[in-house]
Amino acid sequence: MENFTVSTPVLQSNPPSLSSGAGRWLKSKRPAGEIDLSKFKPNPINPEVLENEEQVGQVQLEEIKQAVAEKSGDVVMILLGGRGAQALYRLVGELAQTSALDDVLGRLHVFTQDALGPLRMNNPLNFVADFKRLLGETFFRKVKSFTPIQTDVDDLEGQLMHYADRLEELGGIDLFFLGLGPEANAASHLAYIKPGSGAGFEDIAGMIPIYPTVLDHHINKFKVGGATVTEADEAECRAATHIMTLGPAAILRSKRIVQSIVDADTAPAKRESYRRVLETQISNEIGERARQLDENPGLWLRLHANVRSLVLPNVMSA
Prior knowledge:
Strand content: 15-25%
Oligomer: single chain
CATH architecture: 3-Layer(aba) Sandwich
Helix content: 25-40%
Order of helices and strands: EEEEHEHHEEHEHEEEEHHEHEHHEH
CATH class: Alpha Beta
Radius of gyration: 18 Å
Number of domains: 1
Mean pLDDT: 90
Distance between the termini: 48 Å
Largest sheet: 7 strands, parallel
CATH topology: Rossmann fold
C-alpha cells in the first residue's frame, strides 16, 4: 500500500468522528497535480445540450473510443451509476454481443466510483448489479479487467483501501464518467462526496455515514431507471451504514471527465444544483475556497481543466 498515507483506523479522518456525519478519507502520497488547493485555477463549465439520452450515450461512446485511440496502453475508465450513462450501457451492451467493439473493450480497465455498504453484490440496488443488468455479462468478459468496490465484506475500510491501491497501480484514471446529485440548499454531491464530509484535494477515496436524503435519491434513481426492486431489497439497502466513494484527488487527477445529467424530470432539484455549480464564484482565498468545496462538493469539477458536461434541455429549464 505504498501509495497511501494511512493512520489508525485505516482511513484518515477529518474530523475524526464518524458520528458527526463527516467522512474518513484516504490520502494519496501522489499529489493531485498541484502543491496546495490555492494553485488550482477555477474553470467555467460550458453545458452541451443534447436532444435525448440516446444522443448522450452516443457521445459517451465516442469519448471511450477516443480515449482508447489516443493512448498506446490500456485505458482506466470509471463507470457512472444512476441514470446519466444508462443509454451508453444499453448501447455498449448490445455492441458487446458482436465483435464491433472488441478492440476497444479489450483495452479497458473498468472501475466503479461509489457504493453503499454493507450490501449484497447482487442486490438490484447495488451499482454492480445494475451495471450487469444493463451492460450484460459479455461486456465484463471482454474488458481487460473489472474492479468494483466490494460491499459484501466485513472490512469495508480494508476493501476501499485495496480498491484505491489497484487504481493507483494502473496509473490513475483516464476517463471519468460523472453525474451530479442534488443536496439541500441547491448544493450537490459529486460521486458520493457529500456536503460537510471534509474531503480535501489530496483525498483519493473515503467513507461517510449513510444519510437519509442520499438513500432516498439512490433508491429512486434505480427504480426510475428500470431496476426491479423488492421490499426486502430496499430494506437491505436502507440498512447499509456507509457510503464508499472516490474522493477529490481521483477527480482532479483524472485526464478527462465527462459529466452527464439526464434526469431533471424525475430529480428536479438537479436544475438548481447544476445552475449553482455553473454560476458560483470560487474564492481565491484558501480558507473560503475550502469552505465552498466542502459545502458544495459539485464545485470540485470546476477545478478540473478538461471537463465535458452533457445535459438535456430540461436541465437548463427554469
